[in-house]
Sequence to fold (614 residues):
Amino acid sequence: MRLKALLLMVAALLSGAALVTPAAAQIEVDINAGAVKPLPIAVPAFSGSPRGAEIAQVITGNLERSGLFQPLNVTGVADKLADVNVQPRFPDWQATGAQALINGQVTVGADGGLRVDFRLWDVFSQQQLLGLQFSSTPDNWRRVAHKISDAVYERLTGEKGYFDTRVAFVAESGPKLNRVKRLAIMDQDGANPQYLTDGSYIVMTPRFSSTSQELTYMALRPTGSSIYLLNLETSRQETVGKFPGMVFAPRFSPDGSKVAFSVEKNGNSDIYVMDLRSRATTRITTDPAIDTSPSFSPDGSKIVFNSDRGGQAQIYVMNTDGSGVRRISYGGGRYTTPVWSPRGDFIAFTKQTGGEFHIGVMRADGGDERLLTTSYLDEGPTWAPNGRVLMFFREGASGNPRLWTVDITGRILRPAAYGGSASDPAWSPLLD
Amino acid sequence: MSFDTQRAVRLALVGLAAASLAACASRPKPQPVTPPAQQQPTQPTPYTPPAQPPVSSGILPGSVQDFVVNIGDRVYFDTDEYVIRADAQPVLAGQAQWLNRYPGVRIRIEGNADERGTREYNLALGARRANAVRDFLIAQGVSSARIETISFGKERPIDPGSSEEAWAKNRNGRTAITDGAR
Fold:
């Protein structure tokens, strides 16, 4: 199913006096300051049908979970909203304390298609900040709501949104000594969860391609391990082939043409890169130490990875041919699971020190290390496509892992919108 | 010890063995013996000597159970380490001896790690542990053709706890028999 074809963004900003440039906007949210005080925003139910109220609810949930916005309950005031083409009565909205207002309406076209118009207003300067129209099929209403969320987030923060995305993860069930682990996928907000494997074998570490609807993940059976490539549109699945020992820790290159992974031989794990078209595999580390968890820089020129060649697990960067290896982590403790931000500026990691685990970020040169979380076990960060939010899993001493999100300032830490037992999240790029 | 004393001890032991015959099957909690005074006077039953020694075990030599119970299928490792510890060496030497006695047996060595590490690193660490066990067995004469290895990382704990004691159990190498046992 081609998602691009289903969802068409047809109209841009309205013209006229209401149009303002971003520089003139009265309100803005500084995402890099970690939003000490979230912005009060009103998201009343969209008028019209179908799904007017539900669309507003999905937008509300997205903005609220970001930690940057405080959606207000405005049920009484909302009744006074007129057509989206009419200016709202601003004094009414100022009285609610809202600084921003999203006013939207839903209509169905002659062809049965869903049409959603909305305006984003600055309540105090009484200026329109955004006016957009989306068209799609009625059953695609949630994605319309996510697209609107992304547009509002970007207009108010200056950063790209990350709501029209999916998360692949490992759904866990059963007792600690007999865990069932199934590959699963859901919308970023926890909606539409689906299992992709049946739990008859262990799966771990799914990762998205940044160029196609494709996953790579590792399967572990008593007879051995495999790395799979799974196309989510066709459900076609293939392995990267047979190797004499274990294969694990796969990750796509940014252009989707290669997969880097670890191959173990006689107890020694090294990093290999496979060109997916030619299937040619190149070994790029030869150290007798553990070399694993490779992750490409977004320009494809470097690989950050995990190695204990210095005595214990630390983070290193090398060129994609294996040359120029350089250690970048120097704090105390053990560093693992490095992941390069899609923006290139930061590397996220798991750090183990003092009997606890942390999710942290450091600059790509290793500077400015910042620990964002602390618990019995925090592990496996994955970047939202805007490079400003991370998802990871947190597991207590009794097991039962859950998905969490944290922003790069560490101030906005909260459970993700999926209530089940889950680990190894992988955030997709923005959908088409 | 004088001859007389030895003889007395031996006699005493014989007496004890006879008295405990009825109870030995249900050790360590012997059934109370019914006092003979309450029995009806009957013909004395002829004494039948036991067909097997009282410590018999039902484990078939050369079986998986023989290996697990009498040799031991797991050895344990220190945190983030894969060297074979001193306490693991006699266990592995026993495994090698047993495997050399039953050359038709094939094994899979499974490397395991505790939960105090991240998933991918622990897979690599488990592989190191499995390989260390493999190298030891090969050095003791077990053919490499009979051995395969795998790492389960931290996916297969045997103790669900979250204490040092539980983690110590979960850092192990397990020798699993895959084929050829009796």
Remarks:
- The radius of gyration of chain A is 23 Å.
